[in-house]
Amino acid sequence: MKIYDNVKLIEEVEELAKKGIHKDYQGTVVKISGKDITVCFYNLYNLGEYAFATVDEKYLEFIIRADEKIILEMQEFLSNVKLEKHTTLRECDVKEYDVVELIAEKPKYTLAGVRKGDRGCVISSYAVDNYWQIIFSHPKTGKDIAQISVKREDFKIIDKF
């Protein structure tokens, strides 16, 4: 294994699970110290979120070597980030097709025709920077009102799929 290789966690490791990093999560090797490998793990369910963790190499599987472009991007990224500030990933409680209710009144939602109390359906299996794609529909006609990105803190789950 080399720095900037892409790897996958092949076993559930209790210490990592407490940090929201689970079996099958992937990441990029950023440091090697003997058998201890520091990996930048990516959240499978919230694109854009990452966490750094040190793992025994026996729990990692090599996926692919990074090409030059990716290596340059990782070097630039690592020069601007503090590893100690990013040590956990959010656990994901939202699933595709969950029915949700908007609990925040914000101008960007109102402009789309959606108000606090409106209900919708999650239409994505993952978030992007903690925003979920939701289709809101009229409660009586079922006609779609809007399809918008909604921050996780701005809705509650009414019915799990």
Please provide a written account of the structure.
The strands form 3 sheets. Strands 5-3-2-1-6 form a 5-stranded antiparallel sheet, with no helix packed on it. The protein has helices spanning 14-17, 68-79, 107-111, and strands at 6-9, 26-33, 36-42, 46-47, 50-56, 60-64, 99-102, 119-122, 127-128, 131-137, 144-151, 155-159. It is elongated and about 60 Å long. The model has no long low-confidence stretch (mean pLDDT 95). With 161 residues, the protein is mainly beta. It folds into 2 domains: 6-85, no CATH class; 99-159, SH3 type barrels (Roll).
SSE topology:
Elements: E1 6-9, H1 14-17, E2 26-33, E3 36-42, E4 46-47, E5 50-56, E6 60-64, H2 68-79, E7 99-102, H3 107-111, E8 119-122, E9 127-128, E10 131-137, E11 144-151, E12 155-159
Parallel strand pairs: 4-9
Antiparallel strand pairs: 1-2, 1-6, 2-3, 3-5, 7-8, 7-12, 8-10, 10-11
- Mean pLDDT level: 95
Task: Count every helix, treating DSSP H or I runs of 4 or more residues as helices.
Answer: 3
What structural category arises from helix and sheet content? mainly beta
- Bin the helical content: 10-25%
Spans where pLDDT lies below 50 across 5 or more residues: none
Radius of gyration: 19 Å
Strand order of the largest sheet: 5-3-2-1-6
Beta-strand segment tally = 12
Task: Name the shape in a single word.
Answer: elongated
Which band does the percent of strand residues land in?
A: 35-45%
- Measured distance between first and last alpha carbons: 40 Å
Query: How many discrete structural domains?
Result: 2
The helix/strand order is: EHEEEEEHEHEEEEE
Largest sheet entry: 5 strands, antiparallel
